[in-house]
Design goal:
By secondary structure, the chain is an alpha+beta fold. About 55% of the residues lie in helices and about 15% in strands. β3 (about 60-65) and β4 (about 70-80) form a beta hairpin.
Length: about 140
């Protein structure tokens, strides 16, 4: 409710975005904010132009500006974390959000491997039975 009051719309569930777009896209998205005075929040994003989400991690990352000639981000004001430390923190955050989007994913993958192994054994047994049944019939 507070998010809707602050931003004029219900904020997105970032775990759903992480699941829909993928961890790599979401990681790059969180690292690609830059200051833009033309936006209502004061922030824009290289990956998702005109995004309505403000840069909530700017205190940790610092303020970046977009160099329009090279289309690259440059650090204008450093944040509380070193760039490598910030990248590691964002990586951990994205991994957590991807896990929160689907906590049963690891179980499903493990179960899938067991099902495939069972089907492989069933195929071998069925093939051996077929060979035994049809050996006397020409």
């Amino acid at each position: 409710e507070d998010g809707k009051t602050f931003f004029g719309a219900t904020p997105p569930d970032l775990s759903v975005i992480a699941r829909a777009r993928g961890a790599d896209w979401f990681y790059t998205h969180l690292r690609s904010f830059y200051t833009d005075e033309n936006r209502p929040t004061g922030w824009n994003n290289v990956i998702f132009e005109n995004v309505g989400m403000p840069h909530v991690l700017y205190g940790l990352q610092g303020k970046q500006v977009l160099n329009h000639e090279t289309h690259k981000l440059e650090m204008a004001v450093p944040g509380q974390m070193a760039p490598a430390e910030f990248d590691k923190s964002v990586s951990d955050l994205v991994a957590f959000l991807v896990w929160m989007a689907e906590p049963q994913q690891e179980f499903r993958r493990t179960l899938g491997l067991f099902v495939l192994a069972f089907l492989g054994l069933l195929f071998i047994a069925a093939y051996a039975l077929k060979k035994e049944y049809w050996k006397d019939i020409h």
